[in-house]
Amino acid sequence: MSRIRNIIFDLGGVIINLDPARTRNAFTALGASNFEALYSFSQQNGVFDLLDKGLISNASFRDEMRKQITVDVSDQQIDDAWNAMLLDVPEEKIQLLKQLQPRYRTFLLSNTNRIHVDCFSKELLRVHGSKDFSPWMERCYYSCDIGMRKPEAEIFQFVLNENNLLAEETLFIDDSPQHITGAASCNIKTLHYTPGSSLSDALSNRGLM
């Protein structure tokens, strides 16, 4: 087996704790009666997919959300509901990234959108002193910036090519099975992470710590 030299991390559910039910409940409280069905459908296409790929503006996204809500709501109310799923970046995750830096080339690859990026950037700065992950990662790739989204093979190949990475020397860590499958289709090694478990232990069990 080739030695792992590079590690690509997912963000939500791996580095940042998430609770999607908070967003569902927040939109329901605003009056969106079918948000859960809409959001589930979006996993393959729809307004959420377009937002994550940066193909529609934040304003267009908010207008689409207003179509699902029976009362007048402000931009801030929509943003707050959409961001409700974002929790914390635990200190132990930052410390783990610091430990890995000297031994591996580390990268971030996330399906995310500009509303979420703006939100977690403020929290990251407040708690950890940096507005982004650049102190602990070589490069950060957000789907909204590059117009591609996991589990599409092209997004994994893009990261490999741009950084001259060999797939067989690269480990991708994600909590979504479909994203793991997408990475594996490019011959990238994978680790399917269970949110709430020890990421350090998962890496140690692979002989990477």
List keywords for this structure.
alpha/beta; 11 helices; 11% strand; 2 domains; Rossmann fold
Written account of the structure:
- With 209 residues, the protein is of the alpha/beta class.
- It folds into two domains: 6-17 and 88-205, HAD superfamily/HAD-like (Rossmann fold); 20-83, Putative phosphatase, domain 2 (DNA polymerase, domain 1), CATH 1.10.150.
- Helix content is 46%, strand content 11%.
- The protein contains eleven helices and five strands, in the order E-H-H-H-H-H-H-E-H-E-H-H-E-H-E-H.
- The chain has helices spanning 20-30, 35-41, 47-52, 58-66, 75-83, 91-100, 114-128, 143-146, 153-162, 177-184, 199-205; strands spanning 6-9, 105-110, 139-142, 170-174, 189-192.
- A five-stranded parallel β-sheet has the order 3-2-1-4-5.
- The radius of gyration is 17 Å and the shape is globular.
What's the structural blueprint in terms of helices and strands?
Elements: E1 6-9, H1 20-30, H2 35-41, H3 47-52, H4 58-66, H5 75-83, H6 91-100, E2 105-110, H7 114-128, E3 139-142, H8 143-146, H9 153-162, E4 170-174, H10 177-184, E5 189-192, H11 199-205
Parallel strand pairs: 1-2, 1-4, 2-3, 4-5
Q: TL;DR?
A:
This protein is an alpha/beta fold. It is 46% helix and 11% strand.
Given as residue ranges, the uncertain stretches (5+ residues, pLDDT < 50) are none
Number of separate domains: 2
Q: What is the distance, rounded to the nearest whole angstrom, between the alpha carbons of the first and last residues?
A: 17 Å
Largest sheet, in brief, is: 5 strands, parallel
Q: Compute the average pLDDT.
A: 93
Alpha plus pi helix count? 11
Report the radius of gyration as a whole number of Å: 17 Å
Order of helices and strands: EHHHHHHEHEHHEHEH
Mind telling me which CATH architecture of the largest domain this is? Answer: 3-Layer(aba) Sandwich
Structural class: alpha/beta
Q: Give the CATH topology of the largest domain.
A: Rossmann fold
